[in-house]
UniProtKB/TrEMBL annotation:
This is ABC transporter substrate-binding protein. The keyword Transcription does not apply. Gene3D superfamilies: Periplasmic binding protein-like II. Pfam families: NMT1. It comes from the Bacteria. Residues 121-273 form the SsuA/THI5-like domain. Residues 1-18 form the signal peptide. InterPro entries: SsuA/THI5 (IPR015168). SUPFAM superfamilies: Periplasmic binding protein-like II. Keywords: Signal.
């Protein structure tokens, strides 16, 4: 039975903790302790991790409780590379709240459910992609591979049980490649796999954000497969130990309200948020902004039905790797505490739940083409060096014109972002594969996507980025 946090329960819990000394799990003497596990480099969890911590939103919310009740709170942040060690610590009852990807969250629920003190539930989403573009497969820059079938007989690095691994297995299956017999999957942490890819020990790397974008940005890899081809939502979210939530509902409420603070900030100040996350995580800001900027990850805390359905669809994969005990997804997902947090903030949960578009799209006036950026499937951004804001491009062709003018004026471009012409995935303009079709220029992010387009547009021509910039008409 889920311990849904109600407003009445919160008042009762705060009054109770103020009236007596605190003992047992999550408390020491007169201080309530909460341990939060997060992944600083998994930047779709930033609203419950890196950004949340850097901005001090949770501590501020807890201080408000202290000011009103006299109860002291202490927050301990623990940073990990993947979700697996967070789950291990939650099984051991040493982490109270954790953020991770969809597959790790399900493994978390499966492994903790046998222990009432460790049992967890999903209480919010941090970020998601409706098509699955948060997971990708990359190969070395010089690789001849153009599709997943070209990896048959090769070694592929992935973190087994991660969202990146799940995408790989499902994608290989659709491509007719057996992940057990046709390829060798090496279970490696992301940074280990990145080194293995660079040194030629593996032919490909399948990982979650921000690793694919980081390696491509550093010219250490090229994109082979976009998880959006699966057209299955992928998400990251927050899990909490139910026993901790029952003992300290006011802490969970403070956490979720702090997550709403971080979500509002990343939606309204994406460039500044990316700077903060970059400084705290050590990732290049250009890479952080690729995913955390408008048109990238959908930062929306609500537990949407299609995301819950996607979790149910992940179960067969988890069973296939022999690492999953049966778990009731409907019983594992609980939006009660988040609804309470929304209500306390004066927000409409159901209205937000019903929204399907990205809460932060590229909008504004394109100064080069003189038109509004109204289509998120076309709109891009240019980030000039030294600028504290970006310039909008209404479509990819307009973006190329803007780059052309900037080069002629001697301006330095820090990064430019465009949506893939086939699936809409946001990507670096200079790392995209460009096709000229008449007077229109279209960016694609994989060779497979280019081949699919050329098959139905025989007069279109492949051009490199610099050629496209040079020849685009003013």
């Amino acid at each position: 039975m889920k311990r849904t946090v109600t407003a009445f329960a919160l008042v009762a819990a705060v009054s109770s903790t103020a009236a007596c000394s605190l003992e047992g799990t999550g408390s020491s003497d007169d201080t309530v302790r909460v341990v939060v596990g997060y992944q600083s480099k998994t930047i779709n969890t930033v609203t419950a991790g890196t950004l949340l911590r850097a901005q001090g939103y949770l501590e501020q919310r807890l201080q408000s409780l202290t000011d009103s009740t006299g109860v002291e709170y202490s927050v301990e942040w623990q940073d990990y590379d993947t979700g697996a060690p967070i789950t291990a610590q939650m099984v051991a009852e040493k982490i109270d709240i954790g953020s991770m990807g969809d597959y790790p969250m399900l493994i978390n629920g499966s492994r903790t459910q046998s222990n009432p003190n460790a049992e967890t539930e999903i209480v919010s989403v941090t970020g998601y992609n409706p098509k699955g573009a948060l997971n990708m497969v990359v190969v070395p820059p010089e690789s001849p591979a153009r599709s997943l079938t070209d990896l048959a007989g090769q070694k592929i690095s992935a973190s087994v049980g991660s969202a990146g691994h799940g995408t790989l297995v499902q994608a290989l299956d659709r491509a007719g490649v057996d992940s057990d017999t046709d390829v060798e999957v090496l279970n490696q942490q992301p940074q280990v796999g990145s080194s293995a890819l660079e040194s030629g020990q593996v032919a490909a790397l399948s990982q979650f954000v921000a690793w694919p974008g980081l390696l491509v940005f550093q010219d250490k890899a090229q994109l082979l497969y976009d998880g959006a081809e699966l057209n299955v939502p992928t998400l990251h979210g927050v899990v909490v130990r139910e026993s901790y939530a029952a003992d300290h509902p006011e802490v969970l409420d403070a956490f979720l309200r702090a997550q709403l603070d971080a979500t509002r900030f990343i939606q309204t100040e994406p460039l500044e948020a990316s700077r903060i996350v970059a400084e705290d995580s050590g990732l290049p800001q250009e890479v952080v902004y690729l995913y955390n900027g408008p048109g990238g990850t959908s930062f929306d805390t609500t537990l949407k039905p299609n995301l819950v359905d996607a979790l149910k669809g992940d179960v067969p994969y988890l069973k296939s790797i022999g690492d999953f005990e049966e778990l009731s997804i409907d019983g594992f997902v609980d939006d009660g505490p988040l609804r309470t947090a929304f209500e306390a903030e004066g927000l409409d949960y159901d209205a937000t739940l019903a929204q399907t578009g990205n809460p932060a799209e590229v909008t504004g006036v394109d100064p080069v083409c003189g038109s509004d950026a109204t289509d998120p499937a076309l709109a891009g951004e240019i980030w000039f060096d030294g600028a504290d804001t970006t310039q909008v491009a209404a479509d990819p062709t307009c973006l190329l014109r803007a780059v052309k003018y900037a080069r002629a004026a001697g301006e330095t471009i820090r990064a430019a972002y465009v949506p893939d012409a086939e699936l809409g995935t946001r990507w670096f303009a200079d790392k995209a594969l460009w096709v000229r079709d008449g007077e229109t220029y279209l960016p694609f992010i994989t060779y497979a996507a280019v081949d699919r387009f050329l098959a139905t547009h025989p007069t279109a021509t492949v051009v490199d980025y610099d050629t496209a910039v040079n020849e685009v008409r003013p």
